[in-house]
Design a protein that fits this description.
Elements: E1 17-19, H1 27-40, E2 44-47, H2 52-64, E3 68-70, E4 78-80, E5 94-97, H3 101-104, E6 119-120, H4 122-130, E7 141-149, E8 158-164, H5 167-176, E9 178-179, E10 194-199, E11 222-226, E12 231-235, H6 240-243, H7 246-262, E13 265-267, E14 269-275, E15 281-287, H8 294-298, E16 308-313, E17 317-321, E18 328-331, E19 336-340, H9 350-355, E20 361-363, E21 366-368, E22 373-374, E23 387-389, E24 395-397, E25 412-416, E26 433-441, E27 451-453, H10 457-465, E28 468-470, E29 482-484, H11 497-506, E30 517-521, H12 540-551, E31 557-559, E32 564-566, H13 580-584, H14 588-606, H15 612-626
Helix pairs in contact: 2-5, 10-15, 14-15
Bound molecules: sulfoacetic acid and manganese (II) ion.
Length: about 625
């Protein structure tokens, strides 16, 4: 995949080019493509240009081969059902490849099972690759997708080229990234780009049985990153996080490493703006693990008057401190939303529903008899008795049997961000937008108050490092348990996590950097009857309002053992019936246990790579919670 033996165009052999002009591509791209064609031996080649016509061709093909079925109720919307074995990211088969192991993963203590990335040596992975990729596209089309992560031509953006044998990936990448033949002009002088190779791993003809017309190869699924040479290879899965390589693989893992080398940040964060009734606008970046409501927060409909929320992105933020002004400027490197469908409705997230009423792909959801999408959470908006076809193919009448499930819990909608009713008019601003506050959060049923402000930058980095959350359906984990997910980046970090934390800490060393305040939020605390103590959704604006007032240094916070908390009465609770004391309580036994567990976990996972500054923060917190 990597080492260059020079290949010229005639080495394409007799593989025909179905669409596009190979001769017009930059020569270093040609060389790489020729190598990959030799490796994968496809039937023909399609060089994507991002045109509408191309979208129509891919859609038609997918409908004809039974992978997509049109949702008649909307314009240009489709349901896609996958093989039920291919529905989520597979962290256990996702690897970082570097010569030095500890460039990829930390020096975990013996016996601590490292969950902050999996490493394999170049030699070891070569065997796995040689066992999979040669001939993997036999009988299939080799699509070449040129794309920009971030606004085209922005100095904050990066270019990738994905090769895939899946038209579903072509169609989804057109939604999630900026696909265009314009890209080639940015590579004319041999400029770097991220090389992505993806195959569903089912060469034709096949004797394998194909379920739902969704070719995949779960036994051999493999997602491999080469951070040094900025390459990704993915085999056997068509599911978003494993196949839309611009997203987690590039925009987080590879870009994270580039960001480390270049002094910026690639984070698992939404970007939103809140404008108050005085017309003052603030931009916020917020990190939550997968399926914890980033999309809902990014598109929040304020439950109280006087605020306007606008969305810039819902999953990934690339952020850089401006050398001159010191501002932290953020872009959304994506162009679409790949959101969790179940739970999304006109109450929880009307803007998401309105975004996906056209030009969208729905994966593993149910369908109503009149050709609409359906998933758990839409009960109240769908007449009882409506006939539903579940993603499993089973038909049932809504309301008759409550045990029936229409959708996979990780079912997704994939829709263009520009269609979002509250998309910010500057969401594509090449200069990025200035971040005033950074929020971390997770699902914490117990012990953790609604909002905590970090004492300072270092303490904020500590809050992020000890982030935990109840597991969700976005990955292959089963059952609900509280898992550590530092910075909401556990599955997405592209290099040694200790270095990653140190990278965050180091931003304080540049005096010109205007460090945003850091916060921790928890919408998910429950009472003794397991009922949520906070209404969440649109009412989260109340917390954002408090956060913004803190960003403006308003005197509304007071110190506690775990950070600064809102002074009683400073958070606008008008019209709400919440038990503030329960919501904000710091149970001593919980926090004493929590900090011990945090130290044990971080020390086990990171060993001597755990930055000293974080050990000091842990020690301080230990002393503070002992006083509770
Ligand atoms: O990995 S995906 O991008 O498919 C979804 C997620 O885990 O956030
Ligand atoms: Mn995500």
């Amino acid at each position: 995949f990597s080492e260059v033996h020079h290949v010229t165009i005639d080495k394409l052999g007799d593989v025909p080019i179905k669409r596009g002009n190979f001769q017009l591509l930059p020569s270093h791209v040609q060389t790489w493509l020729a190598q990959m064609i030799q490796l994968c031996t496809p039937r023909d080649i399609h060089i994507c240009d991002g045109s509408d016509e191309e979208g129509e061709i891919a859609t038609k093909l997918l409908v004809e081969n039974g992978q997509l079925s049109p949702l008649k109720k909307y314009q240009n919307c489709y349901i896609c059902l996958t093989d039920p074995r291919d529905v989520a990211r597979v962290e256990s088969k996702t690897f970082l490849i570097t010569k030095d192991k500890f460039q990829s993963v930390p020096h975990s203590r013996e016996g601590a099972n490292c969950v902050l990335g999996l490493w394999k040596s170049p030699d070891e992975i070569k065997k796995d690759i040689d066992d999979r990729f040669p001939g993997c596209m036999r009988g299939r089309t080799f699509y070449v997708i040129p794309y920009s992560m971030g606004p085209m031509g922005s100095s904050l953006s990066k270019i990738g080229v994905e090769i895939t044998d899946s038209a579903y990936v072509v169609l989804s990448m057109r939604v999630m990234t900026h696909v265009s033949s314009e890209i080639w002009k940015y590579l004319r002088n041999g400029e770097e780009f991220v090389r992505c190779l993806h195959s569903v791993g089912v060469p034709l003809p096949t004797t394998q049985s194909i379920v739902n017309n969704w070719p995949c190869n779960p036994e051999k699924t493999l997602v491999v990153h080469f951070p040094d040479s900025r390459k990704v290879m993915s085999f056997g899965s068509g599911y978003g996080g494993n196949s839309l390589l611009g997203k987690k693989c590039f925009a987080l893992r590879i870009a994270g490493r580039i960001a480390y080398d270049e002094g910026w940040l690639a984070e698992h964060m939404l970007i939103m703006s809140v404008t108050n009734s005085q017309g003052e606008e603030k931009f916020i970046a917020a990190a939550f693990p997968s399926a914890c409501g980033k999309t809902n927060l990014a598109m929040l409909t304020p439950a109280i008057p006087g605020y306007t929320v606008r969305c810039i992105g819902d999953d990934i933020a690339w952020m850089r401190f401006d050398k001159e002004t010191g501002e932290l400027r953020a872009i959304n490197p994506e162009a679409g939303f790949f959101g969790v469908a179940p739970g999304t409705n006109m109450k929880t997230n009307p803007n998401a529903i309105l975004t996906c009423l056209q030009n969208s792909i729905f994966t593993n959801v149910g369908e109503t008899a009149d050709g609409g999408f359906y998933w758990e959470g839409l009960e109240e908006e769908t007449p009882a008795g409506t006939e539903i076809t579940a993603w499993t193919g089973e038909k049932y009448k809504l309301g008759e049997d409550k045990t029936k499930k229409s959708s996979h819990p990780n079912a997704r909608f994939c829709c263009p961000a520009r269609q979002c009713p509250i998309i910010h008019d500057k969401w594509q601003d090449p200069a990025g937008l200035p971040i005033s506050a950074i929020i971390f959060g997770g699902r914490r049923p117990e012990g953790v108050p609604l909002v905590i402000e970090a004492f300072n930058w270092t303490h904020g980095v500590f809050l992020a490092a000890q982030l935990k959350s109840e597991s969700t359906a976005a990955a292959e984990h089963t059952g609900k348990r509280i898992m550590h997910d530092p910075f909401a980046m556990r599955p997405f970090v592209g290099y040694n996590f200790g270095k990653y934390i140190q990278h965050w800490l180091d931003f304080e060393k540049t005096p010109n950097n205007k460090l945003p305040k850091i916060f921790h939020v928890n919408w998910f605390r429950v009472d003794e009857n397991k009922k949520f103590l906070w209404p969440g959704y649109g009412d989260n604006i109340r917390v954002l309002d408090w956060i913004i007032r803190r960003a403006n240094n308003e005197d509304v916070a007071e110190p506690s053992a775990v950070g600064l908390l809102p002074k009683k009465g400073s958070l606008n609770l008008q019209g709400l019936n919440v038990d503030w004391d329960k919501l904000m309580a710091l149970p001593k036994a919980y926090w004493v246990g929590d900090i011990d567990e945090t130290l044990q976990w971080l020390d086990g996972q990171l060993g001597d790579d755990l930055p000293q500054a974080i050990r000091e923060q842990i020690q301080k917190q230990k002393e503070r919670v002992a006083q509770l």
